Amino acid sequence: MPETTDTGLPGAPTPQAVGEFYDANNRVITEIYGGNMHYGYWLGPDDTSDFATAGDRLTDLLISRLRAGPGDEVLDLGCGTGGPGVRLAKASGARVTGVSISAGDVALAGARAEAEDLSGQVRFELADAMDLPYRDASFDAVLAFESIVHLPDRGAALAEIARVLRPGGRLVLTDLVERGPAEEDEHKRRAVAEMLAVWRAAPMTRAEAYPGLADAAGLVIDEITDITEHTKYTAAHIYAGTRDHLLRYGELPPDLARIHAMGAHVDWAEFTAAEQSDGMIIVVAHRPHAHGSGSDFRRA
Is 228 in contact with 39 (CB distance < 8 Å)? Predict the structure, then answer.
């Protein structure tokens, strides 16, 4: 678990803690999420899509923004068990290198690529996102699907991404962010911090911080889009998935049992109807050419 900060709240997790979390939980998380390990995207309150469909929908939104094509080299930073990387390779024809700090993730992702007959196009490797084992300018694009939430320093992570991107290369990521006024209720702040700690996630940032973070890393922001109104249903689906797994098998891994317990007393209809104090953004950026290319940054 993350060490506490001087505020008494949990801080950022270590790479070892993140790897151990996914080694212990990745199979059940992938089952609960319907084959992925990331949030889903629902069209609205009347959308009855299952987790698998909603997860693939969000994957496709990111793939469309990445604009990768045949022959491109793409880094899937925080590849999970391989769902998005395999889907990206099939949709784009790009060569995909996926990395995870979890050896278990890498093994499961590699098995998925082999089962899809994509071993020659997609490979998965054990690596630390904060210290990537690749030369400068190795990749045409980087996909970071909720992986930045686990990293101790977003600015340093973006700088490492910029290092391995070729000039003109494109980054698409998703991140959990705080929204609206700062939470003043100490109980609610601690509840959020404890949930992040269970998931081995770092404290959240705000969307407004990204232009400065990107600029310091040598990246240019092209788009920041808040998709919370489409992803906010994810928490209820996670709770339902843990409940169903518990009913079927009679037990959950300890971390997921804690997550299930945290959701047991939530009124999920009320939760999804309320204004969300935290949520999800898509960030699109690029590494400019030597003389800069300007920015067509927009906020959606």
Answer: no
* Nearest CA-CA partner of 142 in 293, 288, 285: 285
3-class secondary-structure state, position 99: strand
Q: Is residue 197 part of a domain?
A: yes
Rounded Cα distance, 282 and 61, in Å: 9
User: What does the pLDDT look like over 210-248, one tens digit per residue?
Assistant: 999 999 999 999 999 999 999 999 999 999 999 999 999
Domain of 187, CATH number, reads 3.40.50.150
For residue 45, is it within any domain?
yes
For residue 227, the surrounding DSSP H or E stretch is none
Structural domain contains residue 298: no
Q: What is the distance between the alpha carbons of residues 264 and 247, in angstroms, rounded to a whole number?
A: 14
pLDDT tens, residue by residue, 15-44: 999 999 999 999 999 999 999 999 999 999
Please state the domain count of the chain: 1
DSSP conformational letter for 218: T
Structure tokens that stand for 205 in this block: 């940032």
- Candidate list 20, 146, 160, 178, residue with the active-site label: 146
Domain of 220 in residue numbering reads as 15-289
Question: Is this model's pTM higher than 0.85 or not?
Answer: yes
Contact 171, 219 (CB under 8 A): yes
Tell me, yes or no, if 194 is annotated catalytic.
Answer: no
Which tokens is 291 given?
């003389």
Residue 261 within a domain: yes
Residue 245 phi, psi dihedral angles, 5° rounding: -65, -40
